[in-house]
Design a protein that fits this description.
This protein is an alpha/beta fold. It contains 14 helices and 12 strands. The protein has 3 domains: about 15-60 and about 425-440, no CATH class; about 65-195, Rossmann fold (3-Layer(aba) Sandwich); about 215-360, Rossmann fold (3-Layer(aba) Sandwich), CATH 3.40.50.720. The structure holds nicotinamide-adenine-dinucleotide (NAD).
């Protein structure tokens, strides 16, 4: 799953602006995710002195649609599911964002997540707006054939509003390459022409991209390296902890270890693995590749201690990269952390309460929508290759990703320093400004 965003959204402790200084009529909603997204946006808009007309425009989605999805189930009965697609902004380019299958999916949740995609794509410096969609369903109760019929019916229903220059869905919670292929195939058949650029996250054999699997971890590692450079800490002397050894964490560990850093701790659902003299990351990587459930369970090496997942978070190191789930660093453990820096590989791993505690303990946080944006930049690369009909090598892909990540890191780092705000806040302000400028330049339709 990619392009996902957390339910715990924080734009960083600012303490000064909550939007109460704006005179616009603020939108209210009972949906917590959308309410938080709006609250964060109003606060940031006030802080940056955003023109109130722009506040009104950007606090609304451009387009939000609901569709009904009648499906023949495997037992021959008919069920109707609800599906949604929201395009929050297309000021910078086509809407981009995931398609999730989950019982909690609603139009308002999609709107909140679409707005976060607008800011994420803007910050990443890629030519996309933000979108999100999904189907309210429990994918565990559905067979593969039922999921295929659901995806194809959804694709047909929203076909009029998607396209490589309109809106480009991607995998998200509980969707992956098969759903993207069904979606692309359905729209291609409806239009009578091949439409590979209509979704990203396709398998390499069907117009997907080399390099995508490692992209998010490579982006996280690039942010850690740039951070170490910025604070003048030699990467060869740095000690790193990576929580979560799945797609993002294992590649972040691999790239950091290859750069000369000492990875002193890693963890996954089977617990923590701590080695003060450094984990043999290549060996751990091989271990999960050969494990039937891709887990660290049973991993061993000289000097390694098996500890709990919580102990790994609280161990001594320079940098902690939480790359597992949301809420890993929270009110109950934030004050116990011994690292100097946190680089958020996962979405929302630091809760808003923890943010406050980390700030008062002088721990700097590189926020998720900067640190894990290698994923969405990688999706953009797939789209670029699809439009050109010409494919890059993995080396070309990585060589293009790293400079973009470096530029984005420094843009936020420098803005945070000059404005005297935390990086999370700086990232949000930089992102909103780019979209607001585009809306202003393009003007209103009438
Ligand atoms: P994944 O399923 O491949 O890996 C998750 C890892 O976290 C697994 O190793 C799992 O065992 C571990 N884990 C789960 N609970 C844990 C716990 N309590 N303690 C320690 N480890 C635990 O998922 P992923 O694709 O690597 O995604 C990780 C995070 O990064 C998610 O928040 C996801 O939304 C975000 N993200 C992923 C991408 C991407 O391209 N994969 C892009 C952007 C953001």
């Amino acid at each position: 799953m990619t392009d996902d965003v957390s339910k715990k959204i924080s734009v960083g402790p600012s303490g000064k602006f909550d939007g109460s200084g704006l005179s616009v009529k603020k939108r209210t909603t009972k949906n917590i995710l959308l309410a938080t997204a709006l609250e964060n946006f109003y606060g940031a808009a006030e802080e940056m002195g955003l023109d109130e007309g722009l506040v009104e425009i950007l606090s609304h989605a451009e387009r939000a649609i609901s569709v009904s999805l009648p499906i023949t189930m495997d037992d021959g009965s008919i069920r109707v599911f609800e599906g949604y697609r929201v395009q929050h902004s297309t000021a910078l380019g086509p809407a981009k964002g995931g398609l999730r299958f989950h019982p909690d999916v609603s139009l308002e949740e999609c709107e909140a997540l679409a707005s976060l995609m607008t800011w994420k794509c803007s910050l990443a410096g890629i030519p996309y707006g933000g979108g999100k969609g999904g189907i309210s369903c429990d994918p565990l109760e559905l067979s593969s054939n039922e999921k295929e019929r659901l995806t194809r019916t959804f694709a047909a229903r929203i076909a009029p509003i998607v396209g490589e220059w309109e809106d480009v869905p991607a995998p998200d919670v509980n969707t992956g390459a098969p759903e993207m292929v069904w979606f692309m195939d359905t729209v291609s058949k409806l239009r009578g022409r091949f439409e590979p650029g209509i979704v990203t996250g396709k398998p390499i054999s069907i117009w997907g991209s080399k390099g995508r699997t490692a992209a998010t971890g490579l982006g996280v590692a690039t942010c850690i390296k740039e951070l170490l450079n910025a604070v003048k800490l030699d990467v060869n002397k740095s000690r790193i902890i990576i929580q979560g050894f799945g797609n993002v964490g294992s590649y972040a560990a691999k790239f950091m270890s290859e750069a000369g850093a000492k990875i002193v701790g890693i963890s996954d659902v089977t617990g923590g693995y701590y080695a003060p003299d450094g984990i043999d990351v290549a060996k751990a990587f091989d271990h999960i590749s050969n494990h039937p459930k891709k887990m660290l369970e049973g991993f061993s090496q000289a000097g390694l201690k098996h500890v709990s997942g919580e102990e790994i978070l609280e161990a001594e190191a320079d940098v902690l990269a939480p790359c597992a789930l949301e809420g890993a660093v929270n009110a109950s453990n934030a004050a116990k952390l011994k690292v100097k820096y946190i680089v958020e590989g996962a979405n929302g791993p630091v809760t808003p309460e923890a943010d406050e505690a980390l700030l008062s303990n002088g721990i700097k946080v590189v926020p998720d929508f900067l640190a894990n944006s290698g994923g969405v930049i990688g999706s953009y690369f797939e789209w670029v290759q699809n439009l050109a009909g010409y494919f890059w090598t993995e080396e070309e892909y990585n060589n293009r990703l790293v400079p973009i990540m470096k530029d984005n890191f420094h843009r936020v780092w420098n803005y945070a320093a000059t404005q005297d705000v935390v990086m999370r806040r700086a990232a949000f302000l930089v992102a909103i400004k780019r979209v607001a400028d585009a809306v202003k330049m393009r003007g209103l339709f009438l």
